[in-house]
Amino acid sequence: TTDHVYEVLLFIPGTEAYDFDDAVLDQQTITQIVKKSGMVPEFCSRKKETLEDDGDIVRQPPPDPKVLVRRPPVVTIMGHVDHGKTTLLDQLRSSNIVDKEFGGITQHIGAFLVTLSSGESICFLDTPGHAAFSAMRGRGAHLTDIIVLVVAADDGVMQQTLEVLQHAQDAAVPVIVAINKIDKDNADLDKTKQMLMQHQVMLEEFGGEVQAVPISALKGIGLTELQEAIVTQAELMQLKGDPKGLVEGRVVEAQIDPKRGRLVTAVVQRGTLKRGDLLVAGTTWAKVRAMFDDSGKLVQSAPPGTPVEILGWKEIPSAGDEILQVRKESEVKSVLAWRRNQELKRKQDETWTAIEESRKEHDQQHRADLVARREKGIYRKRREAKGKESQPRPDHPQFSLVLKGDVDGSVDAILDVFDTYHSKKCQLDIIHYGVGNVTESDVEIAAAFEGEIFAFNVDLPQKIAALAKEKGVPVRRHNIIYRLFEELVVRLNSKLPKIE
Ligand code: GDP
Fold first, then answer.
1. Ligand 1 centroid to residue 88 C-alpha, Å
2. Is any ligand 1 atom within 6 A of the Cβ of residue 183?
3. What GO molecular functions are on record for this protein (predicted)?
4. Where are the beta strands (DSSP E) in 338-485?
5. Beta strands in 441-500 (DSSP E)
């Protein structure tokens, strides 16, 4: 048609594939060709590139240095397992509640802000344990200004300590070492420092640049010093943000809460987020309905460096997604259309690649099979007449199946291909077939014959799935026809006696 261009890749199991690369064919012609081969075509429409013209969001220019103001550093706490990351986060978070004198229940929103007595603030990403590693690779790398590396003084530098150092170096993020558990009898501060130096962590007291702060996360010792070290590092880095431009930020955490709906925590990196703002992240968007801080308090605005929970998302974005503000709803629409189109294209490309690879694999397998058979001298011409095969010899393995498909056409086409299967080694027995979802009676029949159900493009209601499981009837569901055949081949082969 004029709207669609079809790439045609026709694949018939056990034969060469036909690739009508540049052919422009209409649906009807394609259907005819494909049906002649006993298959049903699947159309993956790729709309002509009308949506693309608009493109993605046009980025605002870098801010004028004159408008920049200081902003809180964003800090990730990392370190070897059991060295005290969670305990440290808990301490920092709870000190925060007292500071705010806010009676509400703290909630985990993925990030929190600590305000020191000096008035300075620090934004901590609240990702304990191993999560901090993946966070660092994904969202963290774009978000983290400083890493606090927790090293237990009774254990010293360990495997994950080194991994953190490597990550920090790769992402060019400065590290502050928190030497933890100094309250313990077997804590060895000097040895821990030596170990760090041995791994090229140049500590300040030995003429380097890396600050090391002895702490006890458990007892709350040294936390003020740690926070001061962070502020010093932040000052050195001259962290600044533009509070005026369009909002830019990053999703720290996104989840669906059964009670509160879509919860998205973000850290604002540029601009000041307000109610009513229009935001785009990934392929979703929000009109900001309300914002909450880390203590669950409703806030009216969020300047750079602050974590906020944002309500008003149409769908949930992914952690790590970049958030950008747009001015008009019409812009939201065109940007999302463009992005979704891009994503669709990417997925289609992936599908085509997968089909291509699967085809190659199948071809190779098929050829290898033929060669093997020839070599064994057991390759025989395929039997032409269907009837001759219909009486199985009792000593032959048999494979019984029930076939269900979405429409007559597909069921017929699959049956036609089944008909071409003639093997002396294994009898293919179609005990029942039909159009529609898999039903209780399908399962009963299959169970009676110890067979399997092959379902093409139909649903398997949960109740039926449970019944099938109970009766030990495998249900093989497929949406791509050649995959169904592939699996059938695998199942048939499993019944065959091994060729020695
Ligand atoms: P994570 O795996 O790095 O998050 O470590 P956790 O915070 O879960 O701590 C592991 C264990 O070490 C827990 O039993 C903590 O109570 C303990 N721990 C953490 N910090 C300290 C500390 O400063 N002193 C002592 N004695 N134990 C600590």
1. 8
2. yes
3. GTP binding; GTPase activity; translation initiation factor activity
4. 398-405, 427-435, 452-456, 475-478
5. 452-456, 475-478
